[in-house]
Amino acid sequence: MFDLIITIMETRIxxxxxxxxxxxxxxxxxxxxxxxxxxxxxxxxxxxxxxxxHTENQKEPFKIIFLLYSNGSKYERNAxxxxxxxxxxxxxxxxxxxxxxxxxxxxxRSIYVKTIIEN
Length: 119
Hints:
Elements: H1 12-20, H2 36-52, H3 60-70, H4 74-89, H5 97-103, H6 106-118
């Protein structure tokens, strides 16, 4: 009998986020971050925590997301919009929107606002 060994390939989103922000996924069940959507959801919650705690590196997640988005496939861009930005937008308030937009690279701001308007 042949033993079938299945190796799960990490996607570009998974590799990048786990490499640059391993602390975002330390206490997360593997099943929750086994897809791009799951990892982006968890990363958005981590990013929200950085913003709420006013940490000095709160701009860093947006820089990495911008790189992934600007060089990404249509699937990757949709995943970022549908998961990462939706999680952030779900807790957005008019009083904090300007401050949060200032954390983002210029190229992400319009995408974030579009996500807010669409939802």
